[in-house]
Amino acid sequence: MNTELAKNVHWVGYVDWPVRDFHGYQTKRGSSYNAYLVRGAAKTALIDTVKAPFAESLKRNVAALCPLEQVDVIVCNHAEPDHSGALPAMVAACPNATVVCNAKCKDALSRHYDTAGWRFQVVKEGETLDLGGRTLQFFDTVMCHWPESMVTYLVEEEILFSMDCFGQHYATYRRFDDEADLNEVMQEAKTYYANIVLPYAQPVANAAKKLAGLKLRIVAPSHGVIWRSHFDTILQAYLSWHVSTPTRKVVVFYSTMWQSTRKMAEAIVEGANARDVTVKLFDLKATGDTELITELMDCAAFAVGTPTLNQSLMPRVAAALTYIRGLKPAGKTALAFGSYGWASKGPQEAEGYLTAFGCALLRPAITCRFAPDDATLEACRQAGRDLADIAARVP
Ligand code: FEO
Questions:
Q1: Is pLDDT above 90 for 206?
Q2: pTM of the prediction?
Q3: What values do phi and psi take at 116, rounded to 5?
Q4: Residue 18 burial (CB count, 10 A)
Q5: What are the DSSP calls for 268-299, one per residue?
Q6: Per-residue confidence (pLDDT) for residue 243, from 0 to 100
């Protein structure tokens, strides 16, 4: 169902309830691909599209508001296929439409799709487009989330179509933030930030500063709910997440073969729990990378456990560390630990990952041959206390 944001401004997107994988991001609450239709006195503009399989739904939503022949402009804020996938179908269905985007986006679109025959209008930073009593203004937001990312501002209604910024992978038939469970929305916004935005935290902060001068009555991202009542809540959260502000939290995660590394993990947790900080323990057999990075984003310190398997670390740990390395959580103190049979390699390899993404190592890896003895377990407890002491120093 199309939802009105303002007179002649409608959400026309698609709610993807069943999606559970978004290029490796586990979307446990589904998602939405938000597209918007803005009708001025002279022209009609579609702001973004949806994933390719849902093009027919987008066409129906637009056609319910105006004939497709009357769509004059299709703004493409971002070439990633969750928003541009239906663009070829919409260009074909809207014979009078010109695709409006920046130069980098035009290039990216031509590499994704056969754009021969498409009409383009390339816009620059701050440029405006008059729809007749409705003015669209375009601002580049480089690396929020791709190099060509752009946002569109509807001047008269003070609505910012903010693309991926402030989005959430969250399926709901209620379109606005004040109609949904705000705790759930913020939880998904945090997960989205940790899994999508984190490596681009500085460009997003730069964009937020650049757009701070705009009057914002509504902020309409391309995923999840539209912010009309609680924008300050998500903005403050972004400001906090962007500097990776640590909290008084220690995270311990591990994989285990014959329970020795699990025992070491539990000893670390026991030591950390002796301090007044939050401590969380995750067995990677039961924990996905999406949840893990969300927990790591705001911890002050963490420990990663892996046995040595075939002179390397456990594949599940390698996968998690590879995922974490790409997202670059900053400013953590970390520890590697784990058991081995005849040569300790796994924890040392894990240390390589930790230093690669800028962690300070608490101490050299704690290792034990086959099963941890009392001295090893006490070393783990002490390391837990030390990690917790670091977390406890967070104001
Ligand atoms: Fe939702 Fe970067 O696309």
A1: no
A2: 0.93
A3: -60, 130
A4: 8
A5: HHHHHHTSSSEEEEEETTS--HHHHHHHHHT-
A6: 63
Query: Which DSSP state fits 66?
Result: S
244 has pLDDT over 70? no
What integer best gives the mean pLDDT of the chain? 96
Tell how far the Cα of 330 is from the centroid of ligand 1, in angstroms: 23
Q: What's the pLDDT score for residue 357?
A: 86
Among the options 25, 33, 140, 145, which is catalytic? 145
Strand partners, 139: 151
User: In whole angstroms, what is the distance from residue 28 CA to residue 188 CA?
Assistant: 9
**Catalytic status, residue 238:** no
Residue 17 CA to ligand 1 centre (angstroms): 17
Among the options 25, 36, 48, 78, which is catalytic? 78
pLDDT digits (tens, 9 = 90+) for 335-350: 999 999 999 999 999 9
The DSSP secondary structure of 150-208, one letter per residue, reads EEEEETTTTEEEEETTT------S--BGGGS-HHHHHHHHHHHIIIIIGGGHHHHHHHH
Amino acid identity, position 219: V
